[in-house]
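Model: You mentioned two targets. I'll fold them one after the other.
Researcher: Yes, keep them separate.
Model: Target one:
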Amino acid sequence: MLALPHMEPLCRLVERLRSDGLGTVPDFDPMDGGIAAEVLFLLEKPGPMTDASASGRVGSGFVSRDNDDPTAEAIFRFAAAAGIGRQRSVIWNTVPWWNGTRTMRREEVAAGVDRLAELLDLLPHARLVIGVGRKAARAESLVHRRGLAFLSSMHPSPINRAARPVLWASIPREWEKARLHLDEAAAPRGPGPI
């Protein structure tokens, strides 16, 4: 499925990122909207379940809401509850590579944000970016400079669920704002005042 037209430009981007040698760069999920996506879910950093080459519990090799981990499961459920279909969205990370640790150094986040512009160039239908987590919010000014809307959200990790369960449970309502924004932008406009 990675060779399908909605995926091919994203696969080229992944190959370029892999050539940087900064860590394991997972593929985009071909079940999502690919380059036809209207919404970019921009998380913070891939986790171990995206790494297909890891020893022990091997990951999928994809940034996917279908991965076998609690964060992916929450993304799957929360996006569905918000009414954002897979074909309307694509998932990526501010720091696009997994380097064996969830820690994100300031330089690593800055390097990831620098590479985000290249991804946004490949998403001509994108109208909105949801920055999922505090580190992802660092991309807001870049997103606005590109003329896209930006919405911040808590990260749906098990750590946040344990520490702030009420806020964690409100994530689908935050994401629903994104769907409403998309629906409003897609609504036909009247002829205006006469």
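Model: Target two:
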Amino acid sequence: MALKEVDVRSLDINPFTAIGDDWMLVTAGDAASHNTMTASWGGLGVLWGAPVATCYIRQSRYTKEFVDGSDLFTLSFLDPAVWRRQLSYLGRVSGRDEDKIKAAGLTPVAVDGTTTFAEARLTLVCRKAYATYLGPEGFVAQPGTADDARWYQDHDYHTMYIGKIEHAYVAE
């Protein structure tokens, strides 16, 4: 499938559905070496006068090494009616252990110096603008309560990445 660049401001996307319900792939690295993971936490909005996306990656995730080592990352959105099983697999299995992209049947595509997938209906190419560790000390409620206890029993906290959306591509 060919990619067609569109103005990100022209997109009619509900982030609560697209990210929270349908899920997205967070991918970083170039054509020779890249990794991806499924994410259902993130956001889209405006910050510092620019369209931005946020994503959250646990310290233990292999994809974090690629995002940390790259200036760019992509958020790729696939049709969940077709790709739900593969999206679940990509969120469960580590790229350290196997070629999970190949096993999921996805076709990597080089775009703007980073990677997306031919099967994506929408790809946002983001330039890292900010990253911060979301540790227990940042919770307004005391650590060990509410969200800290629910989401971080193993203390594998997230890093939040804010990326300025440089390009948006839709499948043609």
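Researcher: Noted. Anything on target two?
Model: The chain has a mean pLDDT of 95.
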